[in-house]
Amino acid sequence: MEEITAIIFEAINQINRQLDIDKQLVKSEAAVLYGPSGKLDSIGFVMLIVNIEQRLKKKYKKAITLTNEKAMSQKNSPFLSVRSLTLYIQKLLAEKR
Amino acid sequence: MNLDFLTRKFENRLKYPFLIWKDDSYSYGWLLQQIREFQKTPAYSEVKPGCPVLLEADFSPKAVALFLALIQKAAILIPLSQGTGEAKKKESLEIAKPCLRFSLNAQDELEVSPFSHEPHFPYYEELKKRKHPGLVLFSSGSTGKIKAAVHDFAGILEKFKTPRHDFITIAFLLFDHIGGIDTLFYALSNGSLLVTLETRDPELVAQTIQKYQVEVLPVTPSFLNLLILSGAYQRYSLSSLKYITYGTELMPEITLQKLKNIFPNVILFQKYGTTEVGTLRSKSESSDSLWVKVGGEGYQTRVVDGMLEIKADSAMLGYLNAPSPFTSGGWFQTGDLVEVKGEYVKFLGRASELINVGGQKVYPAEVENIIQQVVNVKEVTVYGEKNPLLGQIVCAQVSTNQAEEPEQVAEKIQIFCRQKLESYKVPVKVLVTSCLQTSDRFKKKRIG
Fold first, then answer.
1. Of B258, B358, B418, the CB nearest to A42
2. First to last CA, chain A
3. Is the pTM above the cut of 0.80?
4. Between chains, do B415 and A73 touch, taking CB under 8 Å as contact?
5. How far is A7 from chain B (nearest CA, A)?
6. Do A67 and B424 touch (CB under 8 A)?
């Protein structure tokens, strides 16, 4: 769990380095990634997701797709917060095992 | 040019709103008054028929009034959205050479300034001779260089003379885009209300639909993807919606199905148009079908070698800076590949290698030129990769001169590109390989 959150934080760090200060994401479990008060535009959001996917692939040697039909049809969006995304990734990794 | 068919409509709707802008409502009576105010200004008297005029604005009350006033003067309008990047703006102005600049700021205050251009374009001369207003729209050509399409506005306006339905519509597509102009004149010619947006964020769009009981939402498939993903449609009542129209890029089948489930009572239909021939009338086979009939009065279509060709009464006169794209018989080769089923077609994609990020075009060569400038980059190939959210994302494969940590190379390229390019052109993925492949004709092998 902490490992996945750490990966998301690393990706946030990398994306933040490309963004103006007022557009940067906060590194907290409750931080909104994409939703009502999110700061990222659609490109920034996709960059973050792809970055996380690449890090997961490197770490777990598994190709995980985060934005597919399954993610989009979840009742509660997994991208609402760092915490919800962590749980979603954990579930996907378990399914791949 | 006489705009009686519009002003008669406005006179019958004096008290009705034509525009919601920044939460304020503006009536058709206000619009007529504002047009008259512009006509009294010294700047307006400087505009001669056939004079190319830059109109730097977004959908705003005065922008609409000024647009109409300039048409009445038979000027050649060159609309540019306020958000246009500096480089594109500069290039556009160098091509179209306006004589005057009308600029409306965020407070809708007008500023007028002259240019020193003395344009001599046969198409401008032709419009002057016809005493017709003109319209210059910019589109990106296959080389990534901007092309300026010159239209006779009288031809564009012709189709709006037929009365159609009165709907409350959102102005989602941009002011300087053929789709945005179509939205504007459809609304005005039917005495309808157009609701403007400050941003195109799904949350704000959904909120606006609820607040103003919007009936028509003309958008792009990418936006609809984001609307679904954000869940914004669950937080607001969108029950006023009657139509969702989509266009400018391919609609993924899965998104369409999902929309049909989310909005069972809304009619979903595809729109089709190009900068060169304007927006055609269209009719989707059904709300959950990608098969669409395109054409309508003034348009003929045919499919040659799998590619859609269009002959239009109101096609552009031509490009200011490129050879004619029409066949000798007057057919415009769209570059759009289609499948045919009776009267219906299904769009399959562009014949060229364009990357389409959420409806915005990216030319590999433009991004490659920037990446090539990054220290230690040896070779680069830029290509599009499918993405469920944005349709496509920009990716780059690079090789380096000296060995360097791949992650570091990727980040360096992204940071450099972000300084030089619009954000949607920045490669989302950067793969570092030992060397890139070339084809047997010594051309870069395209990926995709």
1. B358
2. 16
3. no
4. no
5. 14
6. no
Give the pLDDT confidence score for residue B441 in this predicted structure: 29
pLDDT digits (tens, 9 = 90+) for B15-38: 999 999 999 999 999 999 999 999
User: Is residue B213's pLDDT more than 80?
Assistant: yes
Q: Give the minimum alpha-carbon distance from B68 to chain A in angstroms, rounded to a whole number.
A: 34
Q: Given CATH 1.10.1200, say whether it is the number of domain A2-96.
A: yes
Q: Would you call B426 an interface residue with chain A, using a CB distance cutoff of 8 Å?
A: yes
Look at A45 and B393 and tell me if their CB atoms are within 8 Å: no
- Per CB-CB distance under 8 Å, the chain B contacts of A49 are 389
The string of pLDDT tens digits covering residues B162-179 is 999 999 999 999 899 999
Q: Which residues of B touch A35 (CB under 8 A)?
A: 230-231
Instruction: Tell me if B426 and A14 make a contact (CB, 8 A cut-off).
Output: no
Task: Give dist(CA B244, CA B266) in Å, integer.
Answer: 7
Q: Measure Cα distances from B290 to B293, B353, B356, B388 in Å.
A: 10, 22, 18, 17
* Residues 136 through 155 of chain B touching chain A, CB cutoff 8 Å: none
**B100 Cβ under 8 Å from any chain A Cβ:** no
Domain locations in chain A? 2-96
Q: Would you call B231 an interface residue with chain A, using a CB distance cutoff of 8 Å? A: yes
What pLDDT, on the 0 to 100 scale, is given for residue B68?
97
B230–A17 CB contact, under 8 Å? no
Domains in chain B: ranges and CATH: 4-159 (3.40.50.980), 355-432 (3.30.300.30)
Please answer yes or no on whether A45 and B235 come within 8 Å at the CB atom: no
All residues at 6 or more sequence positions from B9 whose CB lies less than 8 Å from its CB, including other chains: B28, B188, B189, B190, B191
pLDDT digits (tens, 9 = 90+) for B410-430: 999 999 999 999 999 999 999
How are beta strands B243-246 and B216-219 bridged, if at all? parallel
The string of pLDDT tens digits covering residues B236-275 is: 999 999 999 998 877 877 789 889 999 999 999 999 999 9
- Could you tell me if B87 lies within 8 Å of chain A, comparing CB atoms? no
Quick count: other Cβ atoms within 10 Å of Cβ B440?
A: 6
Show the tokens assigned to B156.
């564009």
All residue ranges of chain A with pLDDT < 70 are none
Instruction: Please report, for residues A32, B154, B297, B350, the alpha-carbon distance to residue A45 in angstroms, rounded to integers and kept in the order given.
Output: 11, 43, 42, 26
Angle between helices A82-96 and A42-60 in degrees, nearest 10: 40
pLDDT at B445: 53
B230 with A35: Cβ contact below 8 A: yes
